[in-house]
Amino acid sequence: MTFQLDISVFRPDRPGIRKVLGDLEAEIMEEIWTHPGEQGTTVRDIFEVLYDRRRLAYTTVMSTMSRLAKKQLLRVEKQDHTYVYYPNMTQQEFVSLFVGRIVEDLLINFTGETLSAFGKQEQIGSVEQARHKLDEITRQRHKEEQ
Fold this sequence. Notes:
Blueprint (H helix, E strand, L loop, with lengths): L22 H10 L8 E2 H12 L3 H13 L3 E6 L2 E6 L3 H19 L1 H10 L5 H20 L1
Antiparallel strand pairs: 1-3, 2-3
Helix pairs in contact: 1-3, 2-3, 4-5, 5-6
Organism: Reticulibacter mediterranei
Keywords: DNA-binding, Transcription, Transcription regulation
Protein name: BlaI/MecI/CopY family transcriptional regulator
């Protein structure tokens, strides 16, 4: 399953996944990822955990989980009269996806500067890997345009 992750905001000063998600979205996803993925989670499950910490309204949690489903981070299934949410990816898969998207954006928009920054890294081969990634991105974009 391929996901087009919409990253319209990147906050370098924020920790972890809060760099690309809001605080409540991140908190909900982190809680969902503590459960086995195939088990599913309800709004009530998340609300009860978060209420003690934040005193949120049930509808706030519900609308945020619905927004996460629209962003394709969650999928939702109706079971009887309850909506059950399942993560579409693990936390590590999410991190890899957004890091890849950010690196791709940097390579496309700031090619020279990004390659130069990779060149200053101590890891041998990072510049070659970045150039290879840029070539791969360029080929893919060219294919998509045709």
